[in-house]
Amino acid sequence: MTDNIFVYRFNKMTNDELEAISFNEDVYTNEARLTALDILKSRGVNTEAINAAHTTLMADNVAKEKIILNIPTPTTTFTADAKSSAKSLPDLYSKRFIFVISILFSTLFGSVLLMANFKKTGHSKARKLVLLFSVCYLFVPVILITSFNLDPNIALIANVLGGYILTEYFWNKYLGKTIEYNRLDWAKPVLIMLAITIPLAYIVLKSGGAI
């Protein structure tokens, strides 16, 4: 196994996390994917898909090394290296931002942001799972409050739990803990959420006689 910056971090990951990295060429470099595949193979995970991906990446590395060795000028060699290592990073909403939005607004809003991330990284299955989770989770605070006559503030605890599930389960499982990305600006989604929640809150309070 090649010793690089990914080995130490990847050795701490589960097989599922490593497989997600191995097959996500839109987000991770070939070096990162090959390292994840090497670790999986060292753990005895030798599925047909993993072996095929490993063979392809190894062949690609050998071909690039031959190209570099055959090019006499250092300028061109640098260009070849840059192409192999430089990959455009996806623009995503940060993990912390999604968690905070889930608490302050609702798990549904946090789910929308995470689904936007999954759309950019090509995780269509993950988007559907998050959508299903968010719709079902909408009813959790209502059921708890009405069934057990609990304090309405339990909804805040439910938001914290929902945000934790989004960021620590769905994010880690499909994007990985060590994903590199460009952070999207938070101002626009926050303004949209305020534009939705403030009128709704006003309607609820007015109908209840609070204002």
Question: What is the element layout, followed by pairings?
Answer:
Elements: H1 7-10, H2 15-22, H3 30-42, H4 48-70, H5 74-85, E1 91-92, H6 95-104, H7 107-121, H8 124-137, H9 139-148, H10 154-174, E2 182-183, H11 187-207
Parallel strand pairs: 1-2
Helix pairs in contact: 2-3, 3-4, 4-5, 6-7, 6-10, 7-8, 7-10, 8-10
Describe this structure in words.
By secondary structure, the chain is mainly α. The protein folds into two domains: 79 residues, no CATH class; 117 residues, no CATH class. The protein contains eleven helices and two strands; from the N terminus they run H-H-H-H-H-E-H-H-H-H-H-E-H. It has a two-stranded parallel ribbon with strand order 1-2. Helix 4 packs antiparallel against helix 5 and helix 7 runs parallel beside helix 10. The radius of gyration is 22 Å and the shape is elongated. It starts with 6 loop residues before the first helix and ends with a helix. Keywords: Membrane, Transmembrane, Transmembrane helix. It comes from Formosa undariae.
